[in-house]
């Protein structure tokens, strides 16, 4: 029997191939892990609505850690179990500058994904949503009344710019002094969550609730927001497509996400031979 009790999976660049699919080999390896009583859960920067279809595809019975650890969502109950939203006062100040400087932004809300600009993203997500059954559809909300949004939890704010230099200047001049944790998903996108929120911290919280020691957890990832998991688990596996500075934080490096990296790693280091 494997001594590992849980597998935490980043999604984009890790679980999902370049065309946003789960390979048959990965699906089979995860099913094999679950057959050995190893829990499998998704740990993602995504909103729960864009993660939920893959949770459904894998028929998982665990919650989803969403928005870089800002909250824990239970698809079975369709409810947020625990979370820490962004503080309202600094968020309001930031959004005034977002509007004044015409920055693009996405809001992770409890009832959907709000947006300012982001036309390309919205078109892509809407196209995917149109193909989903009614109970898995994604709610996209144009920014018509931001003040009303601030009366409810905003779990994550993501800022975009087609000009990375402009975004870096905006962050340096406006965001840097605000009490938010920054995570650069790409040169053109920065994600903001409440301090203390991270994939690793929320994973540790969930593991404790399950009576699982973090040394018995395996984590797979490929980006900056996965380092907080790598620092806390017993086996951290970076994907072959991860940048060298991300791989440096892992215990092992597996193959690319397009080359069944998860399946290969599970067979080599996790599943009983």
Please state the average pLDDT score.
95
Shape: globular
Order the strands across the largest sheet as they lie in space.
Answer: 8-7-6-9-11-10
CATH class of the largest domain: Alpha Beta
Strand fraction equals: 15-25%
Question: How widely separated are the two ends?
Answer: 9 Å
Fraction of residues in H or I helices: 25-40%
* SSE pattern: EHEHEEEHEEHEHEHEEHEHEHEH
Q: If you consult CATH, what is the topology of the largest domain? A: Rossmann fold
Rg calc? 18 Å
Structural class: alpha/beta
* CATH architecture descriptor text of the largest domain: 3-Layer(aba) Sandwich
Number of strands: 14
As residue ranges, the low-confidence spans are none
Describe the structure.
This protein is 34% helix and 23% strand. The chain contains ten helices and 14 strands. It has a six-stranded mixed sheet with strand order 8-7-6-9-11-10, covered by helices on one side. It is globular and about 60 Å long. By secondary structure, it is α/β, with parallel strands linked by helices. The protein has two domains: 6-83 and 197-270, HAD superfamily/HAD-like (Rossmann fold); 88-193, Hypothetical Protein, Haloacid Dehalogenase-like Hydrolase, Chain: A, domain 2 (2-Layer Sandwich), CATH 3.30.1240.10.
Key terms for this structure?
273 residues, alpha/beta, Rossmann fold, Hypothetical Protein, Haloacid Dehalogenase-like Hydrolase, Chain: A, domain 2, 2 domains, six-stranded mixed β-sheet, five-stranded parallel β-sheet, 23% strand
């Amino acid at each position: 029997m494997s001594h590992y009790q849980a597998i935490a999976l980043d999604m984009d660049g890790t679980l999902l191939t370049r065309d946003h699919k789960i390979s048959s080999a990965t699906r089979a390896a995860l099913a094999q892990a679950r057959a050995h009583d190893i829990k499998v859960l998704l740990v993602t920067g995504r909103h729960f609505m864009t993660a939920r279809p893959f949770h459904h595809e894998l028929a998982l019975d665990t919650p989803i850690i969403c928005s870089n650890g800002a909250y824990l969502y239970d698809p079975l109950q369709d409810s947020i179990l625990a979370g820490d939203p962004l503080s309202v006062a600094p968020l309001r100040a930031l959004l005034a500058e977002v509007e004044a400087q015409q920055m693009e932004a996405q809001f992770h809300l409890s009832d959907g994904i709000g947006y300012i600009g982001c036309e390309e993203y919205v078109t892509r997500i809407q196209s995917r949503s149109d193909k989903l059954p009614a109970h898995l559809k994604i709610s996209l909300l144009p920014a018509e009344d931001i003040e009303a949004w601030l009366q409810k939890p905003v779990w994550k704010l993501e800022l975009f710019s087609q000009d990375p230099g402009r975004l870096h200047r905006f962050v340096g001049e406006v965001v840097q002094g605000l009490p938010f944790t920054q995570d650069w998903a790409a040169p053109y996108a920065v994600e903001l969550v409440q301090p203390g929120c991270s994939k690793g911290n929320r994973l540790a919280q969930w593991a404790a609730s399950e009576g699982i020691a973090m040394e018995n957890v395996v984590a797979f990832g490929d980006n900056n927001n996965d380092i907080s998991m790598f620092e806390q688990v017993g086996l951290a596996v970076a994907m072959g497509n991860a940048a060298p500075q991300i791989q440096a934080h892992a215990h092992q490096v597996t193959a690319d996400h397009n080359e069944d990296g998860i399946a290969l790693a599970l067979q080599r280091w996790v599943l009983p031979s």
